[in-house]
Amino acid sequence: MKKVIIVITIIAIVIAFTFIYFFYLQPVKKNNPMMAVPPSASMIFEMENPFEEWNEITDNKIWNYLKSNPYFAEIGQELDSLTVDMKNNESLWELVMDRPMVMSVHKTRPKDYDFLYVIDLQRATQFNFIKNYIKDFSEDIEKVYTRTYQDQEILEINFIDSPTTYYLFIYENLLSVSSTHILVEQSIDQLKKPILVRDLDFIDITKALGSNDINMYINYPELSDYLKIWMDDTEDDDDMLSILKYSGMSLEATDEVFSVKGYSNVKKDKPNLLTALMNSGEGEIGVGTIVPDNASYFMSLGFDDAKEFYAQMEEVLKASEDGDSYIESKQKIESYLDISIEDDFLSWIDNEIALIQLNSNSNKNKVELAVAIKHDGIEDTKERLDYIEQQIRKKTPVKFKGISYKGYDIQFLSIKGFFKLMFGKAFEGIDKPYYTIMEDYVVFSNSPRTLGKIISSVEEKSTLDHTKEYAVFMENFDYESSLFIYLSANELLSDTERLLDQESWNELKPHQTYFKSFPMIGMQLTADGDLLNHQIQLNYLNHEQISNWNSLVEESEFKVEEVDDSTETEEEDLISVENILPEDLNSKTFIEHYENDQVKFEVSLKDGLKHGRYFQFDSLGNMVVKGRYRNDEKSGTWRFYDEEGDLIRKERF
């Protein structure tokens, strides 16, 4: 009996040591899952713990709100179904998905794509016998076949009531799975001779990005081809995609914020906009001091030195299809006006140029644009701009003398296509602009009225810098950058409704609440050595918060309307045109309308000033005031009428 106990004890010790060695001491292969990803991948998602991250994504407030949108509903149903399946087979899913995973997207046919999953099984690879018993893992599996490719065994799995076949293989610590056999075979090829993970540019991106819960990589040559599945014409996109090779980004999604941060490598074989920005340094994002708080968007370009920035941009313009035309146009302007762009324009620019789009609230199908250029000294700036204006007067028939609006002088710089010539197509909307100097900026616009809106915002302290929401939002970004873009969803939607045709707007309208759920969007680019550092952030405001906010606005508007209904009307309410600005200071008349399109008032103009007859009407079209202006001042006898057209009083000016 004693001998039996000794034998059993020895066997138990051997089994224990074997178990410890087999599962804890035996060396485990540590192949990187990226090794098995074919170079045809257009996008790659790298997840440290997919099971945990999946649960975080599916329980996220932002995603749960978005999947109520019809466009996301089908995807949401599929993901919810998968989540239920994962919970029902938790042990299987934890075996596979509780480990590092790489998921890649590949174009497989002209109009089709598929996914490849590569999972690091770690010590679970010791369960290599699962290949023989995989059918027992799920009652939905109907058949399991095996075949060999490149000396590697591939399993083909068919599920009950499903036409899709899944292919998988296990190589040391890696498990690769796809529903397209070609992708699995390409994955096997990569293990023998990896391409993507040995590309030095890709290595630079992975090193800079580091380890995060979720990393996303973009392979731009393949992405360009992948996008053709969805879009017939990607020519414009190809121009931008062709100058990038790889991007790596870390993704973060909380209940309040969705953000993307990462790096890209930019091809430098020929001049392009991104290399021009990277080579020009950074500048302060300060334009928020003059941008109205209801602006649709602004784009801020920052740099160390204006002349160096322009030299970089000039190389890009020369290398474009219109390069010869650019050189000829620049020489023609400088020769004809006897000015130097470098000495008379660039010399006073500090470190920021911004393109601003205002919410027009106009019944005309046009966008209100302005360019704000930060100056480094007001006296020199005025001197240089005055000189350019004098040269224009000498060479052209322009007679405009300029006007004053709320204490700010508005001048005219009639050089057609000047900003497109200087900074490219993004600025072609500014043509023959008016300009004014306010704060630290010279602001240019085709419309004096647009300048008037910006002036009023500065005077009334209703700019972005005076809003708490903007200040908090900007804390997420660096103080300086090469490029920063700010978007306001509410204001952009308002502009979109006005600019789109009715059919297009009707298609977009049901989804506007979802766009408004991200009221502020920001994107920033800066140089980081040879790489481009970029960040995108969207702040989330759920539908309940939006509804509460809209209710507060409606209550506020109701109270204002009650005050406006007072029977006592002041004279200044009748004559409300003291600070008007027309779209064009060469216009002969200025007309403003009520919301019902009835004319509110009409006044004659001369050189942008009120000069001539003035008529004012109520919202029903009845004339209530008639008078004249001379040199922007009321003149002569003014007559006031009631709604029946009867004269109620006269006043002499």
Summary keywords:
alpha+beta, six-stranded antiparallel sheet, 23 helices, 37% helix, elongated
Structure description:
Helices cover about 35% and strands about 30% of the residues. It is built from 23 helices and 28 strands. The strands form three sheets. The chain has a 20-stranded antiparallel sheet, with helices on both faces. Strands 23-24-25-26-27-28 form a six-stranded antiparallel sheet, with no helix packed on it. The protein has a two-stranded antiparallel sheet with strand order 11-19. α11 packs antiparallel against α12. The longest helix is centred in the first third of the chain and has 24 residues, at about 1-25. The radius of gyration is 33 Å and the shape is elongated. The termini are far apart. Residues about 1-25 and about 550-575 have low confidence and may be disordered.
| Residue windows where pLDDT falls under 50 for at least 5 positions | 1-25, 552-576
Mean pLDDT: 78
CA gyration radius, whole angstroms: 33 Å
Strand content: 25-35%
The separation of the N and C termini measures 129 Å
Helix content range: 25-40%
Count of helix runs? 23
- What gross morphology would you assign? elongated
What is the count of β-strands? Answer: 28
Major pleated sheet: 20 strands, antiparallel
- Please state the structural category: alpha+beta
